[in-house]
Specification:
This protein has 130 residues and is an alpha+beta fold. It has three helices and eight strands. It has one domain. The radius of gyration is 14 Å and the shape is globular.
Length: 130
């Protein structure tokens, strides 16, 4: 599954739920929606990330702001995720943050980032979300 396909899935799925079904993420302005096969993070009314319990990973869609980056970490912690995968490139070059003792953090070089962008991150996103 590509980044665009995953973002479309998250936005379409989230659009089917009323705001009363979203839970506040700790004491911040972000909210999350728990579903059977995933949990969706909304930050400032934008779908910002999705959590897969199958892979125990949070997939962050874009680096919207410093505050949203904090929401990614809090969301990953709330879900008990072992990994935070960024589906965007920031100044660190890190694509996956290992959040537990036995999970590594991965940093890509420029050539690797180029391949990942060409493939729209599909090697980092599982295909089955049902």
């Amino acid at each position: 599954m590509t980044r665009k396909e995953l973002m479309k899935l998250a936005n379409e799925t989230a659009g089917n739920y009323f705001s009363g079904e979203w839970k506040r993420l700790r004491k911040c302005s972000a909210e999350y929606l728990e579903l059977d096969n995933c949990t969706i993070l909304r930050s400032y009314w934008t779908i910002a990330a999705i959590y897969s319990p199958k892979t125990n990973t949070v997939y962050a869609f874009n680096n919207y702001s410093a505050t949203t980056s904090q929401h990614f970490r809090k969301f990953a912690d709330e879900m008990g995720a072992s990994r935070l995968t960024k589906l965007f490139r920031d100044s660190t070059g890190i694509i996956e943050h290992g959040l537990t003792k036995y999970v590594n953090t991965y940093k890509l070089n420029s050539a690797e980032w180029k391949k990942v962008f060409e493939q729209d991150f599909d090697c980092y996103i599982p295909n089955n979300w049902t």
